[in-house]
Amino acid sequence: MAAEMGPTRMLSLGYPDIVADLLAGNRRLLAFIRNRIRNPAEADDVYQETMLRMLERVREGDVRQPVPYALRVAHSVILDRVDTPVQEPLADDLPCASPAPDQVVSGRQRLAALTSALRALPPQRREVVVRRRLKGQSRQEIARAMGISEETVKKHLTRALAQLAAVMGEDGAA
Amino acid sequence: MTGGSPPLSPGGSPPSEAMLEAAADWVLADEPWTPARQAAFLAWLAADPAHARATEQVRALWKDPALAQALAEVAPAAANDDVPRPFLASRRRALAAGIAGVAALAGAGAWLRQVAQDRAAPDRNDEYATAIGQRREVALADGGALVLDAASRVTVGTAGRRLDLLAGQVAVRVAPAGRPWRAQARSLAVEAAEGAFILDRSAGQVDLTVTAGRASARVDDRHHDLTAGDRLVVAAGGGVVRDRVDPGDADAFRQGWLVVRDQRLDVVVAHLARYSPRSLALARPDLGKLAVSGRFRLDQPADSLRLIAGLYGLRLGESGDGLRLG
């Protein structure tokens, strides 16, 4: 009994859990493969082969859940490799630890860095980010309100996020 | 494909801006996450170990509350206006002013000015909707705000102060300004002059929780006066029940928590389903009335369901492409 659900119009305030699930799924897949194939080059081979097979099947419309499917494919790719030595898995196939944040930069410093990085953005780009992230407007709404194309809105958002992420560096993880 | 760091090994130089931009493209996706899109993303992650790092970096920044704070600082005036429709808005204002001007000359009272306002802003609605797993906050022209839960849909009167909840859950903060807010969800009508309330449609029932101030509700011809902490439930069968809850618990969905005390299991599952790409179902309908209490993470619907299964001695299994409880 699913909840009464509205249409799947994507008006994202930017909290894509599916990306988080897929990142975690990817780590599980890597752990699964590495646990069974010691040699890094062989393991990468299995990884790439798995992806290729999965993409083929997805195109045929056979796959609903890519992550569990990828795990099954990896398993069969490994079994198919007669010549590759396969280890018994060392431990439970726990996902690799997520990347640990580096030392915590003070909250105020981060806020200051973010504010100045935002002020350094071209005004139109900054306005697009404000509308999307602060006001929760969709690409279509932003495009209409600002008189620009949706493609331009998309470009502004991705460029802005990339620029800000580059400035904040890898210890910017929340 | 990278020629640098060896495959499947962590470390290496920080991702380039081009790579961060590609990651941002995935993170900000407006297109639905079909299996094909998910597979393509996984394949992109596989192509270079730096892709996953770039995605984590970009995603963390986008979710970071400090980003919203910084944005609010650089764009202070921007926080309160609704989506502007420049030409139509100014024409409407001119029409309203024109009619009001005539009304003033004619010495007519406030009611005619109201008519002028209604005429100038005819009964049009803006629709706001959210997808699975995504909440949305909307700042309103009158200074109030809406927070939509995931997988929810509301229509809001363009002239403001009116809302119809079509699906899901919405928290409304009412700014005191002129006419009271009127909200509707199926047979339940709410009126509030100020304060805040939450409307929810789950498992065939309608739930109204007043989280601040006062509101009055009408179901069929009965009126109920409610204050902060009051909850009114119109059950699927039509009966109306009144209850007391902690407003903080009701508001917790905004921080990603489902906090319930003796809530029906079918309602709990409905809330979790808004965050689950897989369908969630109960094995038997009569399980729906099982009373559940606890704090559950909305962004981990499967884990939360597992926890509930453990707490209440229910089985959790896969069924088709979804999960089934009981």
Automatic annotation (TrEMBL), chain A:
This is RNA polymerase sigma-70 factor (ECF subfamily). Keywords: Sigma factor, Transcription, Transcription regulation. Pfam families: Sigma70_r2, Sigma70_r4_2. The lineage of its organism: Bacteria, Pseudomonadati, Pseudomonadota, Alphaproteobacteria, Rhodospirillales. It comes from Nitrospirillum amazonense. GO terms for biological process: DNA-templated transcription initiation. InterPro entries: RNA_pol_sigma-70-like (IPR039425), RNA_pol_sigma-70_dom (IPR014284), RNA_pol_sigma70_r2 (IPR007627), RNA_pol_sigma70_r4_t2 (IPR013249), RNA_pol_sigma_r2 (IPR013325), RNA_pol_sigma_r3/r4-like (IPR013324), Tscrpt_reg_LuxR_C (IPR000792), WH-like_DNA-bd_sf (IPR036388). Residues 112-164 form the RNA polymerase sigma factor 70 region 4 type domain. Belongs to the sigma-70 factor family. ECF subfamily. Residues 27-82 form the RNA polymerase sigma-70 region domain. One of its GO terms (molecular function) is DNA binding. SUPFAM superfamilies: Sigma2 domain of RNA polymerase sigma factors, Sigma3 and sigma4 domains of RNA polymerase sigma factors.
TrEMBL record, chain B:
InterPro entries: FecR, FecR_N, Ferrdict_sens_TM. GO terms for molecular function: sigma factor antagonist activity. Residues 21-61 form the FecR N-terminal domain. Signal peptide: none annotated. Residues 126-215 form the FecR protein domain. This is FecR family protein.
